[in-house]
Design goal:
By secondary structure, the protein is of the alpha+beta class. The chain is built from two helices and five strands, in the order βαβαβββ. Strand 3 and strand 4 form a beta hairpin. Helix 1 packs parallel to helix 2.
Amino acid sequence: MPLDEVDAPLDDQNVGRFVKMLSQFKANTQFIVITHNPRTTTEAGVAVYGVNMHEPGVSSLVSVRMKGQPVDEDAVETVSAS
């Protein structure tokens, strides 16, 4: 289930409630959370994916496993913009 910036308007107390809700459901549900909030990422995330552009037109996918086994390195690739 994709959730795009749903935590943006929340204050700290409600971000905590949101993180708790995600943690309760993530055992049975996979979420894709798009956020700029580091608290949501670090407290609720299992894996974090990001895109970097080190040079114009070339994007790299970066992944970090927050807990447990490392992220599959084969899933990390470089994509050239067309």
